[in-house]
Design brief:
This protein is mainly β. 8% of the residues lie in helices and 37% in strands.
Length: 366
């Protein structure tokens, strides 16, 4: 008698769909919270409004006292560091915008069945910690090392493979001045869902690189082939495409939807007259935003940029709209210092990654 495949060890391929959201997608959406777009007003995203993507379960740590970070493998001086040990190193605080690589997945058709983000998977915080480079210098990374693997305490299954969440950086990437071993967010200890008591922050990269609940760094002599590095977080055009690794964030601009919403559809109602639109724009690799444009019914005009808030932080912008009665579509798009501009249409990716198409908001003006 044949047996059904094991639903975890031999999961069915989810593939692509254009249908309604599945029960599993709704469950994921209830676990992983996103930014409320009206919270773009805050320069620093409040704790409970910063986006969260949690792959497995939140590991329990009753206190930071018993937490240990182990650095092993191809190093001259293996280290076991308590949080108090890390705090004796020089400290830095950086304002960093983090965005999920799957932000915008829900708008791709056909879409991958995964966390169904619309536009809300982003947030900006001030992260305080020890520069990773300083600790690696003490450990003495071997000259022949190929990758540094960062493991979180969270463990589960993806693609039928049981593993701790793990991501890697090359020695050069890991030694960048601004990569942090962070223990504080907006001046307070990390919350459990944000990686308490210790996490990695890799500014400019999509959020998958900033490993939460960090307890182990292993230096290895070959490329890391863990699932989160080679089985996902790849730009792919089809199921059998080997893919290109995802690294830096693409430019994006978001605006606060104007007026008042319908509670279910979120469609906006705006009063006739002068309306100030406000939003934020950001890009990856520490690239500054050079311009933001706003379109009303397809006619593009430049917005006014606010002062920069930090190399890795989003930048505010404003635009005055003379709202006239009728039905209108608002859009916004950003351009970074390398000249990359948001596309008007969704770019297809097999797993729904890297979608930075322009935001579109339908508005009724009365």
């Amino acid at each position: 008698m044949s047996r059904d495949p094991h639903p975890i060890l031999n999961p069915e391929t989810r593939g692509l769909t254009e249908g309604p959201f599945s029960r599993e997608e709704v469950r994921l959406a209830n676990r992983n919270s996103g930014l409320l777009l009206e919270a773009l007003r805050y320069d620093l995203t409040p704790f409970g409004l910063h986006y969260l993507l949690i792959h497995f379960d939140v590991p329990y740590a009753s206190s930071a006292d018993g937490w240990t970070l182990e650095i092993s493998g191809m190093v001259e001086n293996p280290l076991r560091l308590k949080l108090d040990d890390l705090k004796r190193y020089p400290q830095r605080t950086l304002r960093v915008t983090l965005e999920c690589a799957g932000n915008g997945r829900a708008a791709i058709a056909p879409r991958a069945q995964s966390q169904p983000w619309h536009l809300e998977a982003v947030g900006t915080a001030e992260w305080t910690g020890t520069p990773l480079k300083t600790v690696l210098e003490q450990a003495g990374v071997n000259a022949y090392a190929r990758d540094l693997v960062f493991y979180g305490k969270d463990r589960g299954f993806s693609g039928g493979i049981e593993h701790h969440y793990g991501r890697s950086l090359t020695p050069e990437q890991a030694s960048a001045e601004d990569v942090l071993l962070a223990w504080a967010m907006n001046g307070a200890p990390l919350l459990p869902q944000h990686g308490f008591p210790l996490r990695l922050i890799v500014p400019g990269w999509y959020g998958m690189a900033s490993v939460k609940w960090l307890d182990r760094i292993e230096v290895i002599d070959g490329p890391f082939d863990g699932f989160q590095q080679t089985g996902t977080y790849l730009y792919r055009k089809g199921e059998h495409d080997p893919g290109v690794p995802i690294t830096m964030m693409r430019p994006r601009s978001l605006m606060i939807p104007p007026g008042i919403p319908d509670a279910y559809s979120r469609r906006r109602l705006v009063e006739c007259g002068e309306i100030e639109l406000f939003g934020r724009a950001w890009s990856g690799a520490g690239l500054p935003i050079k311009s933001v444009e706003v379109a009303v019914d397809g006619h593009w005009q430049l917005a006014r940029l606010e002062p920069e808030a930090g190399q890795y932080a989003w930048r505010g912008w404003r635009f005055t709209w003379e709202a006239r009665p009728g039905e209108h579509e608002l859009m916004c798009r950003a351009r970074d210092a390398c000249g990359e501009t948001q596309p008007l249409e969704q770019r297809f990716d097999y797993e729904g990654f890297g979608n930075n198409a322009v935001q579109r908001i339908d508005v009724t003006v009365r």
